[in-house]
Amino acid sequence: MAFSRRNFLKYAAMSAGGTLIADAPFFSARARAEAEGGNVRYVPTSCEMCFWKCGAIAKVEKDKDGKDVVVKLEGNPLHPQSMGRLCARGQAGIGQLYDPDRLKRPMIRTGKRGDGKYKEVSWDEALTYTADKLKEIIAKNGPESVSMMSHGSPGDYFTNLVKALGSGNIAFASFAQCKGIRDAAWELTFGHKPGSSCERVDLKNSRVIVLLGTHLGENMHNSQTQEFAEAVGNGAKIICVDPRYSTAASKASLWLPIKPGTDTALLLTWINIIISEELHDKAYVEQYTIGFEQLKEAVKQYTPEWCAKETDLPEADIVEAARDLGRYAPHVVIHPGRHAAWYGNDAQRSRAMAILNAILGAWGREGGMWLPANGKFASFNDGYPKYPDPAKPPVIKGDYPFAGGEGLTQVLRDTIITGKPYPIKALFVCGTDMLKALPAPDLTRKAIDNLDLMIAVDIMPSETAMMADVILPECTYLERHDGLFKVEARQAGVGIRQPAIEPLHETKPAWWIASELCKKMGLTEYAVKDSWEARMKRQAAAWGVKYEDVADKGYVTIPGSEKPYITADNQPEFKTTSGKIELFSADLEKHSFDPVPKYEPTEGPEQGMYRLLYGRSPVHTFSRTINDQWLWEIQPENEVWLNKKEAEALGLKDRQLVKLENQDKVTVGPVRVKVTERIRRDCVYMVHGFGHNSPRLKRAHQRGVDDQQLITRYKVDPITGGTGMRVNFVKIIKEA
Fold it and tell me: Strand pairing of 723-724 and 715-716?
C-alpha cells in the first residue's frame, strides 16, 4: 500500500490547519470522482475510531494488481460531527484496516483459556460450534444464562440475538464506567440527557465555559474541540477545574487545581454565591423550575471560606468564578463532562452541575446548551417480531433504582461469579476489552473462568478476545455497512456507514455474524432478510430520506429541525415527573436519597501515597488504537506524571524508570516518570489504555503500563450503580 508515515503526518497537519479540502469543496462522491477523472472513487462513511461517528470520506484507488486500496481519509465538510476535519485517530483508520495483527479468520480455542492456543476454522464450523454450545447451555440453565457485554456498533446486532433468545442480560461499559451516572442525573433534573452522540454545549457562542475534569483537546471529540477552539478565539473565559494542568487548562483564564474529591463542594458553594448575591436568572427559574426555595436553604451552609479550606483553592478565585458565571449568564455553560465515574458519590455531583446550569438559565439559551433537535424519526425494526419476555428478570440493574437501560457491567460480572440469583454461563463480548474497561480486573478474570462459553466479536486480538472460546473476527468500519445513523447536532440529520472496500481476509460484518447465528439457533425470523444495505434502503424510506443522497453525500439534514434556543414559539419540554426542571427531586426523595445534592468528603491518600488519576491521549482512543501503526509511532507508550517537588523529595529525575505499587500491593512497571509542575503534589496521572498483555498485538505488547491493573478498588454510586474508579492510591518505587 502506497501510504507512508510521512504522508500520514502531512495529511494530519493539513487537516488540522483546515487546508486539506479548502480548494476542493466536496459536493458528492460521484461528482468529485468524475471531476478528478482516472481510476479513483470517493466513499462517504462514518468513522469508528471513537464513538463520535465523524463523517469521513475514503479515497479509494486501484493498486498495480487492480485491487481496491484505501489511500486517504479526510473529514466530510457536510457532516456536523467533523465539519471537514478528522483528528489523527480518524485519519489513522487506514492503519486499523491494514494492521497485520488484526484478527483474520474464525478461531476455536484448543488449549487452556488464556494460553493463546487456537485453531483456524471455517465460518460454518465456528458458527455451528457456537450455536451447539449455546443450545446446550440454554437447555441446562435457561435462556437468561446467555449474556453480553459490548461497546460500539457490534452490540446492536448481538443485542437482537440475545433478546431473541429470551435474555435481557446485556450490559455496556459506557453506562457504569463512563457517562451513565451523568445521564441519569441530568434526566432527573431536566428529563433529558445532556446529549446523545455529543453534548449539546453551545461552546462557540459561550462567554464563560466551566470544565470540571473534562479534557477538551485531549479527548479530541472532533466538532466539540473545534468549537472550543473557536470559543477561545472569540475571547470566552475558560474556567478549568482540574488537579492537573491539562491542555484545556492551558487555554483557561482561571485554572483551579482542586483537591480531588471536592468538586461537589465547589459546585454547591457556587450555587450558594449565585443565589445569595441574586445572580441567578430569576425569570427563568420562576417559569421553568421547581424546588428553588429548598435549594436555596440547602446550600446556605456552603460558604466560600469553608469551600476554600475543603477544596484547597483560593477563596478569591472561588468567588470570582461564581460572579463571572452570574455576570455573563445565560451565555455560560458548565460542561456536563462524559466520564463521570469518579468517587462513588458521582450522581449528586452531576446533579449539582445540572442545577447550576439551570439557575443560570443556560438550558436552551445561546452560549449555554441548545435544545434537542426537532427532527422526528419513524420507528423501524424491519418487521422483526416482538422479543419473548425473559422467563427470569434480568440482573443487570442490581439494586440501583436509577441504573439505565444499558445495564451495569460489574453487576453482570458478579452474577457470573456467584451464580446468584441464577447462573450465567455464556457471554458475548462485542467490541470491548473488558480487562481494560472494568475495575478490579482479577474479578473479570474470575468471571471469565466461570463461563462455559465466551464468544469474542472483535477486530483486534485484545487480551480479553484471546481468552474467548470462539473468536468471530469482525471487519473494520471501512469494510462494512452499519446502518443509517441519527445525527443529533443543532439540526437533526442522517449519516451513513458504508464500505470503501470489500472485507479483507475472512472477516465479516457483525450484522452478518449475528444474523447467521440467529439462523443456526432456529430464530430465522430475527435474521436479516437479505442484505444490510437493502435493510438500510427500507430504513431510509421509513425515515423519509433518499438513500442515494445519503450514500452520495454521507450526510443529509432534516429540514426545519434546527431550533436550538427558547423562543416564544419554541418552548422547552422537560420530561420530568413535574414537567419542570427539578432543582429538588421528589423522585430521589422517594427512594431515600438526598433530593438536593449534599457534599460528602472523599478519602485521601496515606503518607507516601498518591491518588491515581487517568485520562486520554489526543492520538489514542483508550486501548483500542494503541497497536495502530500511525498512532503508535506518535505515542508508543504512556508515562506517569509526578509533581516536581515530590520528584525532588524522592530523588527522581525526568524520564527515570520507576514502578508503581497500589494500596493492595499490585505492582506495574517499569514506566518513565514525567516530572512536571502541572499536577498537584498529592496525585499522579497516566494515560489509560497502554500495557497490552496480548503478544499478538506486536506493537502494543507490554509498551507502557496498564493503569487498570492498579484499579483494584472501586466505590459504587448508590443512585445509579456507576463505579467510581479514582479511589486507588499508589506509591512510587525507584528502579535501579
Answer: antiparallel
Answer yes or no: is 47 within a domain: yes
Identify the helix (H) or strand (E) that includes residue 255. Answer: strand 254-256
Q: DSSP for 448-471?
A: HHT-SEEEEEESS--TTGGG-SEE
What's the rounded Cα separation, in Å, for the pair 62 and 50? 28
**How many domains in the chain?**
4
pLDDT for position 36:
83
Task: Looking at the structure, tell me whether residues 220 and 365 fall in a common domain.
Answer: yes
**Residues 464, 514 within the same domain:** yes
Taking alpha carbons only, the member of 308, 249, 296 closest to residue 272 is 296
Grid look-up 452560549 returns 367
Sheet holding 555-557, edge to edge: 483-488, 492-497, 555-557
Radius of gyration (C-alpha) of the chain in whole angstroms: 25
**Dihedral Cα 440, 443, 449, 453, nearest 10 deg:** -80
The predicted pLDDT at position 35 comes to 84
Whose cell is 462524559? That residue is 338
Q: For residue 14, give the amino acid letter.
A: M
Residue 498 has pLDDT above 80, yes or no: yes
Reported as type and span, the H/E element at residue 660 is strand 657-662
DSSP string, 554-621: SEEE-TT----S-BTTB-----SSSSSEESS-HHHHHTTS-SS--------PPTT-EEEEEE--TT--
Burial, 286: exposed, middle or buried (Cβ in 10 Å; 0-12, 13-18, 19+)?
Answer: exposed
pLDDT in tens, 322-362: 999 999 999 999 999 999 999 999 999 999 999 999 999 99
SS3 310: helix
Q: Which three cell numbers stand for residue 642?
A: 509526578
Instruction: Give me the residue label for grid cell 489504555.
Output: 689
What number of other Cβ atoms are within 10 A of residue 74's Cβ? Answer: 24
The residue segments making up the domain with residue 73 are 5-91
Residue pLDDT, tens place only, 271-329: 999 999 999 999 999 999 999 999 999 999 999 999 999 999 999 999 999 999 999 99
Q: What do you get for the CA distance between the two ends of the chain, in Å?
A: 43
- Whether 153 and 85 map to the same domain: the answer is no
Q: At residue 162, does pLDDT exceed 60?
A: yes
Residue 425 to residue 135: CA distance in whole angstroms: 12
Q: Is the dihedral of CA 61, 67, 72, 75 positive or negative?
A: positive
Average pLDDT of the residues of the chain: 94
- Interior CA angle at 178 toward 515 and 146, to 5°? 35
Conformation bin of residue 460: beta by default, left when phi > 0, alpha when psi is -120 to 50: beta
CATH code at 696? 2.40.40.20
The verdict on residue 11 lying in a domain is yes
| pTM of the complete model beyond 0.90 | yes
- Residue 395 near residue 169, CB atoms below 8 Å: yes
pLDDT confidence bin for 15, thresholds 50/70/90: very low
